[in-house]
């Protein structure tokens, strides 16, 4: 404006007055300023201020330079306090200036660069007012959850991927190109780790894995519970050790495991899984499991692992008697246990001798002369031998009672007591919690003798067993497979009402001629003389029958069982004597020509079939004479998954209430 006025020449006084008046009039008028105008004014003001400030600085700088030069001249050293403190390295300052100068940055960003300006509160306010939100405030915009690319339910610290993936384990730096061999090795290692990743990931997911896929040390309480349910195992009595999942994990010595393998026992049976670890922990055991479930091996194997630890019998010690006795209620059973024990014993170099009735005392005395680590005996004959001093039990610390319920039934309680009295008393277990302490119970007392360990095995658990268990056992652990006393799950039980003897004979012929059953079969009768009659019938039908009852000599009985096992005979006709524990492989049918007198005997009879995991059939002829068993029989059939309760039995009056209860009701009436 000043230059335009200069070109037109100086104004006259009037002109000047006129102009002033006009200006005053304009100023007096309220004036509307557009946004643009306001911006312009603000910028002009700003430029003016900047100019003045710059001038001021230049003036100051000049005087400072002069003083500093003076200082150098006088002191010979620079005064730091007088030099301005740089806010950034020189190069950076230069760059900032360049940016401001080029205007490139300001073109992109309308807000003036804060780096190039001196912060003046007034300017700042003006800027905020006229130029919108400042950069800082814009940047301060709140981030929302949806801003993130991925939203996870878990917190960052819960992310465990770093543990399993080696990629996340590093510092996150990625190197491209191999600088040296060390680095190549490192990358190779990483690649291998990555390859390994799926397996490692699987390994670590223990919680979702089945017990069969886990190593032993990863088994949790829950896995053991599932394991026990899978095998129908229940235990009671203090701290009971966990069952074993396989032979390898059993803790049995390797030489025994080799013998087990040679016997062809691929997997342990349920009772073996549950009872072996308990027996190995020196606890007293009550083992309850259905017939044919492998109870014999479940006590023989821990027994052998005990004997392995003992000194080998020599000329002197062999006359101190066996290290262990196994009691069985019948001769047949004792011999069967002997067979099973020999399977393992002979490989380990131990001797076992059975002492049963039917052989002469001198025969048995001769067998014992050589000494034996294990004696298997019926209670009566063992007491005989002890009383005649044919046998002493002065180093026997291991007692097993097989078919203990039967032992009680047969009235062997007194003999069993006598046998136990012949054992060393100094090592009987205390009746306190100590009896559950594995470490304490496995210590040797004043030499080679350990605390006495007593075990009882049975298929049914009547109250009498519990009573004698408290008498003979100390703080026992009870191991039950399935529900105690239940018939084998693998046996299909059929019952039929066939009333007269003639009808039974005919029905038996139909059954055997049907072609459904293969030899061997077992037919049970209730009285000795019926054995011969039924055997004759069978022979007529072309089934070669042998007989087993109490009236036969020991040799005859043994011969009969041998013929059946060897396939020389097709059928065995027997009284309840053979009902217990007799193990003839692959019996396809048990025929109860007469129903057993009680449900326990019935259970044992039908347990002769369906053994070692195979299936079998039991057919029972009923008549009204068997009423006392109907209630239990009905319950048993209804529990068996393979069996069906016939209507005649279901509706039968005697099947509605237990025998004892019925009797009382009748008395009341
Ligand atoms: P229980 O005494 O319970 O009636 P046993 O001990 O007589 O049963 O065993 C029945 C049959 O099963 C026997 O012939 C025995 O050899 C066989 N057996 C036992 N344990 C096993 C196993 N783990 N694997 C295969 N067979 C077995
Ligand atoms: Mg048995």
Question: Can you describe this structure?
Answer:
There is one protein chain. This protein is of the alpha/beta class and 669 residues long. The protein has three domains: 35-76 and 89-134, no CATH class; 221-481, P-loop containing nucleotide triphosphate hydrolases (Rossmann fold, 3-Layer(aba) Sandwich); 491-668, 3-Layer(aba) Sandwich (Rossmann fold). Helices cover 47% and strands 10% of the residues. The protein is built from 28 helices and 16 strands. Strands 1-10-2-9-6-3-5-4 form an eight-stranded mixed beta sheet, with helices on both faces. A six-stranded parallel beta sheet has the order 11-16-15-12-14-13, with helices on both faces. Helix 25 (599-606) links the parallel strand 15 (589-592) and strand 16 (616-622). The longest helix has 41 residues, at 35-75. The structure holds adenosine-5'-diphosphate and magnesium ion (MG). The site of adenosine-5'-diphosphate has 18 residues, from helix 14. This is P-loop containing nucleoside triphosphate hydrolase protein. Keywords: Hydrolase.
């Amino acid at each position: 404006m000043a230059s335009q006025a200069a070109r037109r020449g100086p104004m006259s006084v009037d002109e000047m007055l006129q102009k002033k008046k006009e200006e005053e009039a304009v100023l007096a008028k309220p004036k509307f300023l557009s946004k643009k105008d306001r911006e312009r004014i603000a910028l002009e003001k700003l430029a003016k201020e900047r100019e003045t400030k710059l001038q001021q600085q230049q003036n100051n700088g000049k005087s400072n330079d002069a003083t500093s030069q003076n200082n150098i001249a006088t002191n010979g050293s620079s005064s730091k306090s007088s030099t301005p403190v740089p806010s950034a390295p020189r190069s950076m300052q230069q760059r900032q200036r360049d940016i401001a100068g080029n205007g490139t940055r300001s073109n992109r960003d309308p807000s003036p660069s804060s780096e190039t300006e001196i912060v003046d509160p007034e300017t700042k306010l003006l800027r905020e007012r006229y130029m919108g939100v400042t950069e800082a405030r814009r940047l301060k915009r709140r981030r929302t959850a949806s801003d993130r690319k991925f939203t996870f339910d878990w917190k960052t610290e819960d992310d465990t991927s770093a543990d399993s993936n080696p990629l996340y384990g590093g510092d996150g730096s990625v190197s491209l190109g191999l600088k040296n061999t060390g680095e190549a090795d490192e990358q190779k290692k990483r690649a291998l780790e990555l390859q390994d990743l799926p397996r490692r990931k699987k390994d670590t997911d223990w919680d979702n894995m089945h017990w069969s896929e886990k190593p032993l040390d990863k088994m949790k309480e829950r896995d053991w519970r599932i394991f026990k349910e899978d095998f129908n195992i229940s235990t009671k009595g203090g701290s009971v050790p966990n069952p074993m999942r396989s032979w390898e994990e059993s803790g049995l010595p390797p030489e025994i495991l080799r013998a087990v393998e040679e016997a062809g026992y691929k997997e342990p049976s349920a009772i073996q899984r549950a009872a072996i670890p308990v027996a190995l922990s020196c606890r007293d055991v009550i083992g309850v499991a259905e017939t044919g479930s492998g109870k014999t091996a479940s006590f023989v194997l821990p027994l052998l692992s005990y004997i392995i630890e003992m000194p080998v019998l020599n000329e002197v010690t062999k006359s101190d008697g066996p290290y262990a006795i196994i009691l069985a209620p019948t001769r047949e059973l004792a011999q069967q246990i002997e067979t099973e024990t020999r399977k393992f014993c002979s490989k380990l170099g131990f001797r076992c001798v059975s002492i049963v009735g039917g052989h002469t005392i001198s025969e048995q005395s001769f067998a014992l002369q050589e000494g034996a680590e294990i004696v298997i005996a019926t209670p009566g004959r063992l007491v005989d031998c002890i009383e005649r001093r044919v046998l002493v039990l002065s180093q026997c610390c291991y007692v097993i009672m097989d078919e203990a319920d039967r032992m009680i039934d047969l009235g062997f309680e007194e003999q069993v007591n006598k046998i136990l009295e012949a054992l060393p008393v100094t090592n009987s277990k205390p009746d306190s919690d100590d009896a559950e302490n594995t470490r304490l119970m496995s210590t040797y007392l004043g030499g080679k003798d350990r605390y006495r360990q007593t075990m009882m095995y049975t298929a049914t658990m009547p109250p009498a067993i519990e009573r004698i268990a408290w008498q003979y056992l100390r703080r026992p652990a009870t191991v039950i497979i399935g529900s105690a006393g239940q018939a084998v799950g693998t046996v299909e039980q059929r019952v039929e009402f066939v009333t007269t003897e003639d009808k039974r004979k005919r029905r038996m012929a139909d059954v055997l001629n049907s072609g459904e059953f293969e030899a061997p079969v077992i037919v049970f009768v209730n009285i000795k003389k019926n054995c011969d009659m039924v055997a004759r019938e069978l022979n007529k039908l072309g089934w070669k029958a042998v007989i087993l009852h109490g009236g036969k000599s020991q040799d005859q009985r043994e011969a009969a069982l041998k013929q059946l096992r060897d396939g020389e005979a097709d059928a065995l006709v027997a009284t309840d004597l053979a009902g217990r524990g007799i193990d003839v492989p692959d019996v396809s049918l048990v025929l109860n020509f007469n129903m057993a007198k009680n449900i326990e005997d019935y259970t044992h009879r039908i347990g002769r079939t369906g053994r070692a995991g195979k299936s079998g059939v039991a057919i029972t002829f009923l008549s009204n004479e068997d009423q006392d068993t109907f209630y239990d029989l009905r319950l048993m059939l209804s529990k068996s998954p393979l069996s069906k309760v016939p209507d005649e039995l279901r509706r039968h009056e005697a099947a509605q209430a237990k025998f004892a209860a019925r009797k009382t009701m009748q008395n009341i009436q």
